[in-house]
Amino acid sequence: MDYKYIIVEIDSPMAIITINRPDVLNAVNIETILELEKAVVNCTENPDVHVIIITGQGKSFVSGSDISRLYEMDDEQAREYSITGQRVLSSIEKCEKPVIAAVNGFALGSGCEIAMACDIRIASEKAKFGQPEVKLGLIPGHAGTQRLARIVGIGKAKELIFTGDLIDALEAHRIGLANMVVSQDSLIAEAKTLARKIADAGPNAVRTAKVVIARGFDVDLATGQEYEVEAFSKLFRTDETHEGMKAFLEKRKPNWNKEVK
Questions:
Q1: d(CA 246, CA 223)
Q2: CB of 172 closer than 8 Å to CB of 130
Q3: Which of 28, 41, 82, 126 could make an SS bond with 32 (beta carbons 3.0 to 4.6 A apart)?
Q4: Coil, strand, or helix at residue 99?
Q5: Which of 35, 37, 113, 190 is catalytic?
Q6: How far apart are CA 53 and CA 66, in angstroms?
Q7: Segment 4-61, tens digit of pLDDT
Q8: Active site includes 93?
Q9: What is the pLDDT of residues 70-119, one digit of tens each?
Q10: What domains are there in the chain, each with its CATH number?
Q11: End-to-end CA distance of the chain, in Å?
């Protein structure tokens, strides 16, 4: 599929989606967001892709929403933009395949929100994170008020959102917003290494783990444990699980290409 604002590269077992508007530091408009949604859906449906990496072209991951577009919106258009962005980011979060954000620079506003919708965030030493919308008389509109609090805690989220302050990669790592910090030059290589490590595991097991973690996050522990029991036991119906255990006992690498029932 042809895209105008993003680049999609398939490097089995992973796909790299690059947001490509470097002239505006990869600020997103509605068209970019919809292209991102299509790319994630296509990568999810591609059997050769087991892990998705999202990054930005040039010096920025995503610097936010395109303010020139926001300035032209009325309240109903803003509502539709917020709803669309939340839907697209939810599709990233709920994608059955793991998604890694390789944050190469500014991840501000919508950029921070896109990164938070990913499962794992790897930040370059030059990355900057923030939700600076209040400085424009706005609030985050793509679930930033919700995901940031869940990731870093409500107190820190309030501080960052109320002040609009930016934080560097080390601070993002300290508060749990970034999983790791690496050099700028090694960012994509590190993301690919992690993607390959994930792809080496049982693909159905990884997908199941992602679903169970998500389902259990906002319920009480007892309910979450019930989800885990059901998912754990159902895996024993699959060829993948039997192949994984058999390979371990036979001291060989598992063949995940066996059909999963």
A1: 31
A2: no
A3: 28
A4: strand
A5: 113
A6: 23
A7: 999 999 999 999 999 999 999 999 999 999 999 999 999 999 999 999 999 999 999 9
A8: no
A9: 999 999 999 999 999 999 999 999 999 999 999 999 999 999 999 999 99
A10: 6-199 (3.90.226.10), 203-249 (1.10.12.10)
A11: 31
Question: pLDDT tens digits for 188-237?
Answer: 999 999 999 999 999 999 999 999 999 999 899 999 999 999 999 999 99
Q: Which of 37, 133, 190, 243 is catalytic?
A: 133
In a 13 Å sphere around the CA of 192, the CA atoms on its Cβ side amount to 13
Taking the CA of residue 211 as centre, how many other CA atoms within 13 Å lie in the half-sphere pointing to its CB?
A: 14
The question of whether 190 is a catalytic residue gets the answer no
Whether this model's pTM surpasses 0.85: yes
Tell me which DSSP letter residue 235 carries: G
